[in-house]
Every structure is written in C-alpha cells, then in structure tokens.
Design a protein that fits this description.
Order of helices and strands: EEEEEEE
Number of helices: 0
Strand content: over 45%
Number of strands: 7
CATH architecture of one domain: Sandwich
Radius of gyration: 14 Å
Helix content: under 10%
CATH class of one domain: Mainly Beta
Distance between the termini: 23 Å
Largest sheet: 7 strands, antiparallel
CATH topology of one domain: Jelly Rolls
Length: 109
C-alpha cells in the first residue's frame, strides 16, 4: 500500500501532476490531478484521443465538453465524475478555474 496526499499543480508546474502509478497484472493505473485555467480550451485546437480509459472527478470549476462537430456535449461541474473510453474524442472549454482528480487505466507495455 502506498499513501499519497492529494495535491494540485502549482502555476510553475505543468497543468497535470502524477501522484501514483502502478502496474499490476499487465494493467497500468495512474492517479493524478489537473489544474485548468478559465478561458482555455483543452486541447487548444482539435480533439485529443488517449490510449487509456479515464475516470475524472471534478473537484472545483466547470468545463463545457464538446462533440466532434463542436456542439456542446455537456458540462462537467464541481462534484461530477466522468468516464471516458480509450480513444474517445474529447475537447472542452474551461468556463471556470477547474481542478480535477483523474485515474487512468491502460495495458502496460
């Protein structure tokens, strides 16, 4: 067992901070936190697709999530959790300074 205090990236750090990462039975699980500044788009253009399943918990703020045609998919707000499948297109507009906790699961290399 490994215990870590949950901390968020500072303004001097990259927007994402990895807290824990373990490989067990061929699956890599990573826990981390993110800070997103109000007025930014993630990613800055287009859509991102990641090779892992993601669960995120919004601890503060609001993100307007977008469909690939740029229409609004929904809003991630403080207290919400979201599951994103591997290779699912994702993008959003950060409407408020936002912090979140994420868990990633992927096949280990």
């Amino acid at each position: 067992m490994e215990i870590k205090k949950i901390t968020y990236p500072t303004s001097k750090e990259h927007y994402s901070k990895e807290l824990l990462s373990e490989v067990n039975e061929g699956i890599k699980t990573t826990l981390g936190t993110v800070f997103l500044r109000k007025g930014t788009r993630i990613p800055s253009e287009g859509f991102s697709k990641h090779p892992f399943n993601e669960i995120s918990i919004i601890t503060k703020g609001c993100i307007e999530m977008l469909n690939e045609d740029e229409s609004i998919k929904g809003y991630l707000k403080s207290g919400n959790a979201v599951y994103i499948n591997a290779l699912e297109a994702q993008a959003g507009n950060v409407l408020e300074d936002t912090t979140l906790i994420y868990v990633l699961n992927e096949k280990a290399n």
